[in-house]
Specification:
28 strands; FAD/NAD(P)-binding domain; 612 residues; alpha+beta; 2 domains; 21% strand; seven-stranded mixed sheet; Cholesterol Oxidase, domain 2
């Protein structure tokens, strides 16, 4: 039975008046309820976790099972993922999931202008602002993403070792420690894995990973053969000994459905509910559990105002169900921000931790001056689309099926065989059956190749727009600010064009490229035309990170090696925002890894505090 996609309903002035009246009545009810409430229980928890995204889900589960007799509060601005269960759970609906209004923060980036790299006498506009989806739902972006499982291979271990090279205390973030965490989280269902596969994968975690259960389309299988014929080596495990090559992705699915971190970790955390009687006379005792408060928008961190010498976090002020509420941490507890690379820095800045100039401009008291919001890293991408013989694609695909990971040519030329065998690749091409509606204005069946710059050198930043906690921050991506990024992207796009031209894609399936030649002369595309195409068509791959950088404070760090915010107490940040350098692959698994590693650090510190 097919399901019709709901059409967009445009509200008229009468509808808007009715909406306003309902909101007015709702607010009156909230105010009346507040007047008649005879008492209010003080909310106190051992740990307060801000955000039920990838990191928050893992952290909540690991802490409640790793520390005896604690309770946790998880504050999530969105709702449970079951509210849109049909779209979120079905892998074939992945491209609709990240467009769900109720599950997305609705961010839009700032317009970007820069000098042309090809002709520096010209100024070009990269984008006038693009949608920047961020998960606002249980599971965060793991409930909305393309489900590609990418932890980065042993061949790219240097990236994590670079994290560890920042000082002797950072050794806890080297590849061996990170691999331990990846394996602990993962539950890989590959049948009959060989010993080499077992070296890099886990089989007992709660984050389910699997090969495609129903195979792939013929056209996609033939695309693999085309890539191999061009000299690209086959790779049956992008998370194994090496990352480069062409192969099939593994994805976060279980039994035909998406497996988000909410499905795997948060739901397991919620199963633990225990009661411990109090030792005091007439004491009720303590409930050991994880409480999740949905639709709770955090306003700021609460500080100990009596202590004038130190910035000691004591709780969180948040807005929920029409009222402002406060939750506090118990002695030896912590506030842990897990709100992602956009919201975590925003919460810190609203709480007085951030760049002096931006905070003063928004009349926010400065508690600690730190480069919060700087070092915004992301994987820019650009897509090539080709239509094919009708009915070649039937839309059950779960999206990202085939990957081609390669080294780009820094001069913008088509990569050569040596580039294909380079074990330090910097470009990832995701090959997916093209589905009508996936890209605005294109409604043909076919395939799409998305070139992703996995190792960007351009760096962006974000800043507060105001001191209004409901206001969007200003997001400056700075895509392709370096010529190196631009020419490497051009190199990959040229490879995509070459793939489309090869048989049997061009013969059996009648694959014909569309979109790229709109303003050019056939195959004769100048560097200036390529630059124009890349800057106009570039989009995000939804991998922002780095805005609360883990590094020594003297080197632009915001958190230390144990993810504690400099100049504060009882406050940590645990999510993709702490990445000092962005991993060369999809960021969901690395974010879960960071949360698992952080849980061990928090358990160590909590145990030490309680032994004093």
């Amino acid at each position: 039975m097919s399901q019709t996609v709901p059409s967009i309903i445009e509200k008229n002035q009468e509808d808007l008046k009715k909406d306003a009246k309902i909101r007015e009545l709702w607010m009156k009810n909230i105010c009346d309820h507040g007047k008649h409430a005879k008492f209010k229980i003080k909310e106190t928890y051992d740990f307060i976790v801000i955000g039920a995204g990838t990191a928050g889900c893992v952290l909540a589960r690991e802490l409640v099972h790793g520390i005896p007799n604690i309770n946790l509060l998880v504050l999530e601005a969105g709702g449970p993922n079951v509210h849109t269960n049909g779209i979120i759970s079905l892998p074939c609906a992945w491209y609709k999931a990240f467009r769900l209004y109720d599950c997305d923060w609705g961010y839009v980036t700032q317009e970007q202008k820069m000098k042309s790299h090809v002709n520096p006498t010209k100024e070009v506009t990269v984008k006038k602002g693009i949608p920047y989806p961020r998960g606002k739902v249980w599971g965060g972006c793991s409930s909305l993403n393309g489900m590609v499982y990418m932890q980065v291979s042993r061949g790219q271990a240097k990236q994590y070792n670079d994290w560890a090279a920042q000082g002797p205390e950072y050794k806890i973030w080297d590849w061996d420690h990170c691999l331990e965490a990846f394996k602990a989280i993962e539950n890989n269902s590959r049948e009959n894995p060989d010993e080499k596969f077992k070296q890099f994968h886990g089989f007992n975690g709660l984050h389910h990973v699997q090969d495609f259960q129903n195979g792939v389309y013929d056209i996609m299988s033939d695309l693999i053969d085309v890539a191999k014929n061009l000299g690209i080596p086959y790779n049956d495990d992008f998370n194994g000994e090496r990352q480069n090559g062409v192969g099939r992705y593994q994805t976060n699915n279980e039994k035909g459905k998406r497996c988000s971190l909410a499905d795997g970790y948060l739901r397991d955390a919620l199963k633990k509910v225990e009661f411990h009687p109090g030792s005091e006379p007439n004491g009720f005792g303590k409930v050991v559990a994880v409480d999740v408060r949905s639709y709770a928008h955090v306003l700021e961190i609460i500080w100990d105002e009596e202590n004038k010498k130190e910035n000691i976090a004591t709780g969180v002020r948040y807005f929920c169900n029409g009222t402002v509420r406060e939750a506090f941490i118990a002695p030896k507890g912590e506030v842990i921000i897990c709100s992602g690379a956009i919201n975590s820095p925003q919460i810190l800045m609203l709480s007085g931790v951030g760049p002096k100039e931006n905070l003063e401009a928004n009349n926010i008291k400065i508690r600690k001056e730190l480069p919060v919001g700087k070092n915004l890293l992301d994987h820019p991408s650009c897509y090539s689309v080709a239509k094919s013989t009708p009915s070649t694609v039937r839309h059950w695909s779960s999206g990202a099926e085939i990957g081609i990971i390669h080294k780009a040519n820094v001069e913008g030329k088509i990569p050569c065989k040596e580039d294909f065998f380079d074990e330090n690749p910097d470009i990832q091409i995701i090959a997916t059956p093209f589905q009508p509606g996936l890209v605005d204005g294109l409604n043909d069946d076919g395939i799409m190749l998305v070139s992703i710059l996995n190792v960007p050198s351009s760096v962006g930043y974000l800043e507060l727009n105001s001191n209004n906690p409901f206001d969007q921050p200003r997001i400056h991506l700075n895509y392709f600010e370096t010529s190196d990024d631009l020419y490497r992207m051009i190199s990959s796009l040229k490879l995509c064009r070459e793939i489309f031209k090869q048989p049997p894609l061009s013969t059996v399936y009648n694959v014909k490229e569309i979109g790229i030649n709109d303003n050019t002369n056939g195959d004769d595309i100048s560097d200036e035309d390529w630059e124009k195409f890349v800057l106009e068509k570039s989009i995000t791959t939804f991998h922002p990170s780095g805005t609360v950088k883990m590094a020594p404070e003297s080197k632009g760090g915001v958190v230390n090696h144990r993810l504690q915010v400099y100049g504060t107490k009882n406050l940590r940040v645990v999510d993709a925002s702490i990445f000092p350098y962005i991993p060369a692959g999809n960021t969901n698994a690395p974010t879960a890894m960071v949360a698992w590693r952080a849980s061990r650090l928090i358990i160590e510190d909590y145990t030490r505090k309680n032994s004093l």
